[in-house]
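Appendix B, record 7
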Amino acid sequence: MSRDKTIAMLIIFTFNILFWMFFEQAGSSFTFLADEIVNRNLGGWTFPTGWFQSVNSIAIIVLAPIIAWIWVKLGKSNPSIPRKFGLGLIFNGFAFALLWFALSSLVAADGKIPFWTLFMVYVIQSVGELCLSPIGLSMVTKLAPLRLVGFGMGGWFLSTGIGNNLSGIYAAMISGSTGMTVESARAGYTQGFYILVVGGVVLFLVAPLIQKLMHGVK
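Structure tokens (predicted):
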């Protein structure tokens, strides 16, 4: 039983890497996007690029009680841990889908996309984070063998760290050697959308198998 739970935990760690690889574009390539390609002029006042980093924090404060209420309201229909992770990936993918749409259809004559698109990308990503991040450490304490709980938590943070490292590599690829352009951003974020949605769907499909390995842990 302990071996099965450990295997389930390691599978989820793999998808956790995928989530953070793309979520952390918020602090890297999205910043370049905001600086170069987003119209930040709001009625004669320019929205500072750095302020986009506050959108996630505000969204978490506002949305966390709502998401928690939804989980409670669902009761026995509350999604399993693997499916919550899948939802996190899919919401992250929706954020990239919005960027794909904006960079394909909403680019103005000055080469900029509307302010609201990037703002909503941060909000949608925050919903994905709320589906995944709060249950991570709780999941580890339930799945890891008692004598290896600390080791399991280290694995969780390691998977997050690997995702952050891959995020930087991916951001460099999108930005290119000559700086971010509409074309490089569109190509990179379109690819991100497909990877995240496919990852989320795969996790949804294998969720019953993972749940079986978890032996009733919820």
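Remarks on this record: The chain has a mean pLDDT of 92. The chain has one domain: 2-39+50-213.
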